[in-house]
Amino acid sequence: MIDHFYDTGDSIAALATPWGESALAVIRTSGDNCVSLFSTVFSRSEAVRDADGFTMHFGYILDPETGKRIDQITAAVYRAPRSYTGQDSVEIFCHGSLPGIQSIMKVLKKHGFRDAAPGEFTMRAFLNGKMDLSQAEAVAEIVEAKSYHAHTLALNRLSGGVFKRIDKVKHRLLNFMSSVEVQLDYPDDEIGGDTLLPSSPVLEAQEELKTLLDSYAVGRLYREGITVALAGGTNAGKSSLFNLFLREDRSIVSEIDGTTRDYIESWITLQGIPLRLFDTAGLREARHPVEKEGIKRSSKIISEAAVVLYVIDGEKGLSDEEEEKTAQYRKDRRYLFLWNKVDGNVKAAPLWALPVSAVTGEGFPELEKQLAARIIGEKLPTDGVMIDSLRQKELLEKAYIALGEVERGMASGVSLDGVAVDLKDALDALGEITGEVTSRDILDTIFSGFCVGK
Ligand SMILES: Nc1nc2c(ncn2[C@@H]2O[C@H](COP(=O)(O)OP(=O)(O)OP(=O)(O)O)[C@@H](O)[C@H]2O)c(=O)[nH]1
Ligand SMILES: [Mg+2]
């Protein structure tokens, strides 16, 4: 991290759009002195120098020494504190030409601006109280979101979703802390006695933290996706179902046993969750070395998949061998069983298998529903707040564990001093999430992960 990262008095500038040819590019600047510095390189310098916030100005970027025009631009002026960083800012909308952008940056730097470090704009926003640390992290999460859903979740965090939840827990604990302190200050008071402290605020706080912690796994899921494999005997209809999921004729389907010899994969989205779906080679005692190898590779995919859709040919029903196998697989939480070909003349499906038809699509909506439920579980927070940052998750765990200590301490009658120490640990961890309690190292780590211009 560069040394002057914390000098918020400097005026900084950076390209906020990708470095490449485009119709428009945006150069962002910020600093207490930023508007007046900018006016020295702008053709309508007086207009911009006295400009109000939220105004746009059309003109040219000039080299003040030669008077040469560099680019035709519009400049958006923001006045403190009503800007992204909380400082005076100018956003320059110029043409997306690489030499043009370079020349503008050069003239800005010659006239008082310096290059912004990664995340420095957001860092200033945080230091100026425009957002808490969980919101600052959400800024990077929005930029990096790979799916529509991940984007929506990050936007929720940006509008303070995590902050509000943590703040609520913190207030609960602070109230409790004051009752502990009252007892510490007046140990002989007649209302005294450690046993009088109710443990419910601690339990309720723990419950809240647990919900947020559980949301981490779900948040990751939306961001990174999950692997689902179709498995089963030959000719069961795996490739037909694979194609149905893709809504595309991707995998070869035929009535010949052992059509699929290798695995095939494709990304699909199920209720906003990215799924990496695999079609695999039908499992049987193969003689051909190529098929053998295909089955070996497919078995590896199946053993590593988060969810296995085990397809059974309902027309044939279960052979003794398959009966035994599926009995084994049913103990594995990852397996969901499909009784395929129900459009035809099928045997009755057992209760543990879902009747479907890859040909008519019968049972498919139910399959999608059950698959989504299996993947997400029932832990989806109702208000849609999910955490996505490993840092936040670790701090939540720390707070959760400290509260466990508080509870144990109270139950076993440990001195109230000990309880107060654990309670303070929990509060500190929560404060670190939102950034009230923080160190320079933490800020460096968080903001250095940002892109320049953010
Ligand atoms: N009637 C009916 N036939 C189906 C259904 N699903 C698949 N089939 C037929 O069953 C045969 C095998 O289908 P595939 O999808 O190739 O089966 P698979 O499990 O991929 O087979 P392998 O790749 O050989 O392991 C084909 O002739 C399909 O048309 C279904 O739901 N109903
Ligand atoms: Mg196949």
What does this structure look like?
A hairpin with a 2-residue loop joins strand 8 and strand 9 (273-279). The protein has a six-stranded mixed β-sheet. A six-stranded mixed β-sheet has the order 8-9-7-10-11-12, sandwiched between helices. Among the domains are: 3-130, Gyrase A, domain 2 (2-Layer Sandwich); 225-357, Rossmann fold. The two termini are 15 Å apart. The chain has helices at 34-39, 45-49, 98-110, 120-127, 133-144, 148-158, 161-185, 200-224, 238-246, 289-304, 320-329, 364-376, 390-411, 416-434, 440-448, and strands at residues 11-15, 22-30, 55-62, 69-78, 89-96, 113-115, 226-232, 264-270, 273-279, 307-313, 335-340, 353-355. It has 454 residues and is α/β, with parallel strands linked by helices. Mean pLDDT is 90; it is low at 190-194. The chain is built from 15 helices and twelve strands. The structure holds guanosine-5'-triphosphate and magnesium ion.
